[in-house]
Amino acid sequence: MKLLKFGGKSLANGKGIKNVIAILSEKIKNKEKIIVVLSARGDATDELENLLELAKSNCNYEKVLIQFRKQQIEPLTTLNVDQEFDLLNRLLKGVQLTEDYSQKIKDLVLAQGELLAVKMVSALLNNINIKCQVVDSRLFLKTDDNFGNAQVNLVTSKEKTVKYIETIDADVTPIITGFIASNITNETTTLGRNGTNYSASLIANFLGIKAIESYTHVDGIFTANPEIVSNAKIIKHINYNEASELASFGTSILHTKSINPLIEDGISLHILNTFNKENEGTLISNHQTARSIKSISVQEEVVLINIIGKGIIGKKGIDARIFSNLSNIGVNIGIISQGSSERGVSFIIPKKNKAMAQKVLLNEFKHEILKQDIQAVNTIEDISVVTIVGQHIGNFASCLDYLKQNKINILLINNTISGNNISLVIHKKEVKKAVNVIHSQIFGAIKTMHIAIVGKGTVGGSLINQLLVSKAKVLNRKNLKLNIFAIAGKEKILFNKNGISDNWRTSLQEKENTLDHEKAIIAYARKHHLENLVLIDNTSSEDFVNYYTSFIENGFDLVSSNKIANTQRYFQYKTLRESLQLHKKNYLYETNVGAGLPIIDTIRTLHESGENITRIKGVFSGSLSYLFNSFSASEQPFSYFLKKAIELGYTEPDPREDLCGNDVARKLLILARELDLKNEFNDINIENLIPESLRKGDTKQFLVNIEGIDTYYSAIKNKLADDYVLRYIGDLSGNLQEEKGDLQVKLVAIPKNSALGNLTGSDSIFEIYTESYKENPITIIGAGAGAEVTARGVFGDLLRIADKK
Ligand SMILES: NC(=O)C1=CN([C@@H]2O[C@H](COP(=O)(O)OP(=O)(O)OC[C@H]3O[C@@H](n4cnc5c(N)ncnc54)[C@H](O)[C@@H]3O)[C@@H](O)[C@H]2O)C=CC1
Ligand SMILES: N[C@@H](CC=O)C(=O)O
Asked: Is the ipTM of this complex over 0.90?
């Protein structure tokens, strides 16, 4: 025998009631022996409560009652419900007259919801020739007089239930009311919140039924509320202890009171979805699962009360007075926190009890408040309690770190004595982000990185396209969702919290101009509670780097191809690092030197491992490598190749930054600073390769006069000896253990058959000399510029940041 319980949403009009009848008829036709327990249909209980309130306020409830009747007789309009509605009308009239009602009257009114439900379901089954019988649980579930939340007399109720059910023929299915019962004088009582689940557990227990199927509107118990965490997973099987823990921390489909009768008799409870026949649901039984389950629950509708005062330090009996006063007025206390100095006590109570609790406490401590021993009894509203059930505090450190990185402010933290549940009190507005962050951390589930990309030019544009193309693969391989929520050009920004799409260029174009990109991005991320934020700077802007600290302070990690932040004045460079350290944020910029080549990583690893780097030398500029390689081997003028280098995306936005040596100098300085040298940009000796006449004016003007550069380079080429090539090199030497190194950027003629002379295309070469490697340097060669390779390097930095999460 099985007991089937259906909740209100399952019994609502339309698909719900249709599916319920289909489920029941299939089982009965298949000769399964079942008994059925029902809630009120849809939102009937709330609607009846509303009718009571209307009547109490002497409002016209009749119209609402007519509407309620209409709903309740769907889909069988011929159903005779006069008895229930006559009673409701009389009761409501009485309430209207007296402008008041008791809890006893309320129970009788609410009971009509369940009575109507069993009447409808029985009639629908009878109509398809299924034998069933309406059963009013008030006839055998006996309680005390505590109307609204009555306590069941287990012995009497068991005896009466068994006897009553025995009177029903074996081929007739009992359709029993949930939630309602009666006292010793047969007055209607109700069993409190989620009473139908409790009725179902009790009846199964009384009748020795070993399995309950509980039909709801959800697929079962999830690792977190799927409305908050889109990739929350169904928990297929849990044991009673785990279910009790989940129930006591607010998992809405489970209730401690309903689980106890199951544990007592080893009854399994299978939570199923009325609307999803295919779903396996969650099975709760006494089976011991190999691995303890974890789930994140959220309790809302709570407030945090703080009692603060230096006059209560070490004073005995304060806590006792707080808690006995609250207990006397029936207020449940959740998390309690007290500093060792006892300068204050904080605890969580239900929001609905806030005013009452505050009044009682202010009264209890009025003398202490007068004497200023207690400075405040204040309340923090808009908070939530996030509980990770099944999480041991010992393994929680990384999660806390991760929450901190995501700027989630934890007001209180509490772990249970069993050590397996951790509760965090946080601001309500941060719940979504916090639960997602915790969920991805403890379940290793899909982690989402929310990415803002500033600069959508050569590198930025390629990066966006690479991310869009590769995101499915990354999701598959790394369980990592790369979600670009913002793209900013110089004037416009495009936002989409769910990720921008392939036609981003058109969508961006259609946007209005925006000022203050940094403020807009930060505000958007905050408004939508986005976690794991990364800002990618693909501009060459000097102004934009001033906002890096603001991004860091607002929870962003940084990736940049822009070299400016690393080549500002040394104190600014240091300040940025301090801010990163303070806020536990990462900043990766591998593409700053050698585009996609692993230069910075190699040098950093060598340096951090204690290897003494003595010199770094090479061709650091991809565009100049390309220019000199092509120009030396051709009769075409220099400007011809310069235009091609621009087209190929090798040069800086203003190509003169390459030709004047600034770009190589920046790279050199970045490497020097990786070695902890304190050089400034001004310390670098740079040979400028732009003729005087072309140095002034903006980029456009330079490009108009670009041919003016040709005589200068032809003269250089003409002076070159046979078998020699021109190389524009960066050289970091000197005593690199001192405060500053010697940094040179210069044009040199070198033998064609040397390592540097052998370069082709836009390749760069980096020779890293160290104490261990002596005169055989570590050499890294490869494409040193270009949109695709640089974008790939930025992509790599982004994945490295994701790995640190
Ligand atoms: N092209 C290459 O091979 C490599 C480039 N880089 C670096 O990548 C960065 C980007 O270079 P490219 O893409 O080649 O330049 P680009 O000129 O094609 O793109 C830069 C974009 O940033 C935009 N921009 C400038 N200031 C902005 C601001 N404040 N807000 C929003 N957008 C802004 C510009 O309008 C432009 O669209 C530069 O810092 C460069 O040094 C680094 C390694 C290699
Ligand atoms: N303009 C630069 C691009 C990479 O940083 C170069 O040519 O190397």
From this structure: yes
